[in-house]
Amino acid sequence: MFDPKLKEALGRVQKPGRYTGGEPGSVYKDKEKVDVRFAFCFPDTYEVGMSFLGEKILYELLNSHENWWCERAFMPWLDMKAEMERLGLPLYTMESKDPLTAFDAVGFTLQYELSYTNILAMLDLAGIPFYSKDRDESWPLIVAGGPCACNAEPIADFFDVVQLGEGENQLPGICAEIEKAKKEGGVSKKELLLRIAKIPGVYIPAFYDVEYYEDGRVKAIIPNEPGIPARITKAIIKDLNEFAPPTNFVVPMVGAIQDRASIEVLRGCVRGCRFCQAGFLYRPMRQRDAGLLNRAAQELCANTGYEELSLSSLSTSDHGQLEELLDDLNEWAPKEHVSLSLPSLRVDNFSQSLIEKTTKVRKSGLTFAAEAGTQRLRNVINKNVTWDEIEKTCTIAFNAGYTSVKLYFMMGLPTETMEDIEGIAETAQKVVDLYYSLPKRGKGKGVQVTISCACFVPKPHTPFQFVPMDTEESLQAKQKHLLESVHSRKIKVNYHDSTTSFLEGVFAKGDRRLAPVILEDGRLSFCVPGDDGPPWSGVWNLTGMVVLDGDDYFEFQCDDEVMHRRGGTYKFYALDIDTFRRETRRWISQGEEIADCCKTTEELHEWYLKHWTYNR
Fold first, then answer.
1. Cβ–Cβ < 8 Å for 469, 505
2. Which three-class secondary structure string do you get for 212-234?
3. pLDDT by residue (tens digit) across 294-331?
4. Is pLDDT at 439 greater than 60 in this prediction?
5. Dist. CA 45–CA 526, nearest whole Å
6. Strand partners, 508
7. How crowded is residue 195: how many other Cβ atoms within 10 Å of its Cβ?
8. Which among 602, 616, 511 has a CA at the least distance from the CA of 559?
9. 96 in Cβ contact with 31 (< 8 Å)
């Protein structure tokens, strides 16, 4: 039965279905008979969180344990947040409607740096103290995981446990330690964290102290407890076939952004694009067997009723058994009116066969990542795509009846000039011209080419992690120049906000001194999608504890003991474009070997030490 306060709140918001729960596929257990309760929190709205495949994987995995219960919680929209604050209604989970304080552990996924204030907003709505040091055994453990955990330092002070790597092994291990401690009774929070710290890939921020040089650079991050490793190695699953894909999703009440059946066919990528964090974090590339995927996909569609199946990964067309898998899927999918989509297709291995095998029921959209507008710049970023391959791919698509294509690009890349920006528009125009040159194109139909242009943000653990980020003024000038370079109504241009991208870079590369800043900004205006967000500009000095200029984070001064555990100090400075071209041309050209020689983050760091021009 709903709490009367909850019923009142639901009657005053636009989309109550976001908050009611009860969706098909939800897992319900008797809370008196379970030993561990885990709240999986997505720091964004229901529609976004219900599109996240990682939540579906871990939800099914944890709930497969009879005596554990994993439930879900999301960041409420502005109207519901206001009602919860007005009524004193704490943030609750979708299944039991219990507040987050009733759980043994509360886990957040770190998918995007600018969701950090949403995490604090959810803790605030739940009545949970922000800082780990302010929470004793009476509070749930606050756990984090996901790609941004590779540098969780800006929010490390808020978390008890951070998972580095893939959570399928780590999270059950954490829950097992919680269960063991509860059954023993009297186990302190510190003792529990010491036990959890022994799980591979687990980082306990409270067990590390940060030392700084007088000039503000990080000098070292040192364990402050015996037995705590100085260096943490990410956890990976060696054989994905040991973890079958989930076969029973929670089907959302309110349409998710990606409301379809989705199955992960492989993990990792071998392409070696120098800007791509996911490509390096999830190395080595591993794939699931076609037979396992086919069985799981058929069961998933039967259980959920979905009529669209997405074969998800960073590079689906690199799966070694893709053609075999598509043949297997097409034995039953058309009969069940299930369409197939491959969201991560590569320009250089797109084929007529893939078109034919993925359009037996209905066509889905086609999206290709060219990333840069000229071949010179594509070579710089190690995006091994040529115009001939783009032309071949679009020709196949247009001859098959497609009339729209989306092309992904980035701006602000190292060595980029206005000629490269013009190249984006020229590439799109050449695709338009190609369509009208084909005799087999759809008669009476026009073509639509969409340019989607993101701002380059240097991310940790990538070959470009120490590359300076372009300034907001420069990015805005390039965006304006791109719009002026497009001369056809057949081309639509979308681009990211440069200020948002700048803040993403600050939090991607920042350290623990940002925690008070994030907290103060969040208190001023917690950020939710569609809102203007926190008033970031001018708040760096708000707390009296942190005096930062956001640009300092792009001077890239780094101590090697921290970044590589090698000893010695290396300083990486932001360079103007001319200096960057002169000083790093050799590094960029030699970087062509990265894709072949660096299969792990460790190997990437070894390559860095060998090739980067540094001051020691």
1. yes
2. ECCCCCEEEEEECCCCCCCCCCC
3. 999 999 999 999 999 999 998 888 888 999 999 999 99
4. yes
5. 13
6. none
7. 17
8. 616
9. yes
Encode pLDDT of 180-237 as tens digits.
Answer: 999 999 999 999 999 999 999 999 999 999 998 887 778 889 999 999 999 898 898 9
| Cα–Cα distance measured from residue 609 to residue 560, given in angstroms and rounded to the nearest whole number | 9
**383 token code pair:** 């995006």
Collapsing DSSP to helix, strand or coil, 546 comes out as coil
User: Could you give phi then psi for residue 612, rounded to 5 degrees?
Assistant: -70, 140
126/203 Cα distance (integer angstroms): 24
- Whether residue 124 contacts residue 130, with contact meaning beta carbons closer than 8 Å, is answered with yes
Q: Quick: pLDDT tens for 460-499.
A: 888 888 788 888 899 999 999 999 999 999 999 999 988 8
CA gap 111, 53 in Å, rounded: 12
Burial classification of residue 270, based on how many CB atoms lie within 10 Å of its CB (0-12 exposed, 13-18 middle, 19 or more buried):
middle
How buried is residue 547: exposed, middle or buried, by Cβ count under 10 Å (0-12/13-18/19+)?
exposed
Torsion (CA) 444, 445, 446, 450 in degrees, nearest 10: 180
